[in-house]
Write a structure and sequence with these properties.
single chain; alpha/beta; FAD/NAD(P)-binding domain; 2 domains; 12 helices; globular
């Protein structure tokens, strides 16, 4: 039996992988017994920061990682594909449907038992439990965080995460915005509106994003309002430390007046069809539900007070009368120093039977979290079956991520998204960047297939005949 603590993306993926290979799993999730500051339901795998799994093409490292996960039988990818919403070249999902799809799949698996309780300490090694996976995510409870800190032998690291506001689609001024994806990219026809859903979910225009264009004057007015707005007080910690990949928009703005125009408000790849020109700056809105009734502000995670958010964001063209379904907010995010604690198998260096996975293990991003859970689940299943844990080679995205988390410099460690830069380079790489990335993707998929076919790979463990 395998014990998993945490019912987020990593925990659910790990449970699915182990159960798929005939190993019983007990999955602990503390919600709703103990709620968190940002979750809104008791569903497993609830997404809180964004509905986006980012790029979905093989010339993008995270797109490659997703394809590798699909080929390894990922539950998270299956659910994401079934609940995707229009997002250009990215994979975004209807958050409620996604969480429900994962919850239903876990509930229907007879080898997985879900226990709703809080685990306040790392479970000790015990007879009958082959392995334990800690996958409690960025909102690990105070008690378990303290025990993790004691186990790793040093103060574990903490930083704040911020989430973006969401607006009601029918309150967006469609005359002030235009629908378009960068460079004209689109995934094709958008999902139809459900019966009773708002008509604003359907649009005959091109592209999957609503774009709010700003002139230089409008941008200057918005910028001044943003940098002078009042932020919410932080009580959880004595210092603020944000991950660079998820900075609050006001923090970015304080770095310089043009920082936003080279970040979340960059107009590159967009042409306003009404003027035939690229806007000076742009705020993009991404569909948040299949019905199209909610849109999130892309890259606009914030810690501003709610009243200030409404005042500042209504200066954006198209949002003057916006109704906010959810304001942005900040929450605690905790992770361990992976290189000091973990092996590339996601096992801890101190205990063979103890694994960490997900954001608490020191990865950043939904896809990366699920990928770590996938490997942790496979390797925990290997231990349960008397086999040795193994990892795909560094030529693959999933193997490179595991290597980075376990081999980066501990003294300067920060969570990372997957990139081609952490993968083993090609011996004879094409000179063109796009061709080089595709060549690395081709090699990765071939090497992943060879690893999965190997007799010692946990993927080769026997699967139960029923229901698969």
């Amino acid at each position: 039996m395998i014990q998993i603590v945490g019912g987020g993306l990593a925990g659910c993926e790990a449970a699915w992988q182990a159960a798929s290979r005939g190993v019983p799993v007990v999955l602990h999730e503390m919600r709703p017994v103990r709620p968190t500051a940002v979750h809104t339901s008791d569903r497993l795998a609830e997404l809180v920061c964004s509905n986006s799994f980012r790029g979905d093409k093989l010339d993008n490292a995270v797109g490659l990682l997703k394809e590798e996960m699909r080929r390894l039988g990922s539950l998270v990818m299956r659910a994401a594909n079934a609940t995707r919403v229009p997002a250009g070249a990215a994979l975004a999902v209807d958050r409620e449907r996604f969480a429900q799809a994962v919850t239903d799949a876990i509930a229907a698996e007879p080898l997985i038992t879900v226990v709703r309780d809080e685990v306040a300490a790392i479970p000790p090694s015990s007879a009958g439990v082959a392995a334990c996976i800690i996958a409690t995510g960025p909102l690990t409870s105070d008690a378990l965080s303290a025990d993790i800190a004691a186990f790793v032998g040093r103060a574990h690291l903490a930083f704040y995460d911020a989430i973006s506001p969401i607006v009601l689609a029918e309150t967006i001024d469609r005359d002030a915005v235009f629908r378009q994806s960068r460079w004209g990219r689109s995934l094709g026809p958008r999902a139809p509106v459900e019966p009773g859903g708002p008509a604003c979910g359907v649009d005959d225009g091109e592209g999957d994003y609503l774009n709010c264009p700003l002139t230089a004057e409008e941008y200057a007015r918005f910028y001044e309002a943003l940098v002078s707005a009042e932020v919410a007080a932080v009580h959880d910690f004595d210092r603020e430390r944000f991950f660079e990949g998820c900075l609050p928009v006001e923090v970015m703005a304080h770095r310089g007046s043009d920082t936003l125009r080279f970040g979340p408000m960059k107009p590159v790849g967009l042409v306003d069809p009404r003027t035939g020109r690229r806007p000076y700056a742009v705020v993009q809105l991404r569909q948040d539900t299949l019905a199209g009734d909610h849109y999130s502000l892309v890259g606009f995670q914030t810690q501003l007070k709610w009243g200030e958010q409404a005042r500042v964001l209504r200066l954006v063209p198209g949002l003057a009368r916006a109704e906010f379904v959810r304001f942005g907010m900040i929450h605690r995010n905790t992770y361990i120093n992976g290189p000091a604690v973990l092996r590339s198998t996601w096992q801890t260096r101190r205990r063979d039977d103890l694994f960490f996975a997900g954001q608490v293990s020191g990865v950043e991003g939904y896809v990366e979290s699920a990928a770590s859970g996938l490997l942790a689940g496979l390797n925990a299943a290997a231990l349960a079956c008397g086999a040795a844990p193994t990892v795909p080679p560094r030529t693959t995205a999933i193997g490179a991520l595991a290597y980075y988390v376990s081999h980066a410099a501990p003294g300067e460690y920060q969570p990372t998204n997957v990139t081609f830069g952490i993968m083993a380079p090609l011996p004879e790489a094409p000179r063109r960047k796009a061709a080089r990335k595709l060549a690395m993707a081709d090699r990765a998929l071939a090497d992943l297939a060879a690893w999965a076919r190997g007799a010692e790979s946990p993927v080769a463990l026997p699967r139960p005949a029923a229901g698969r």
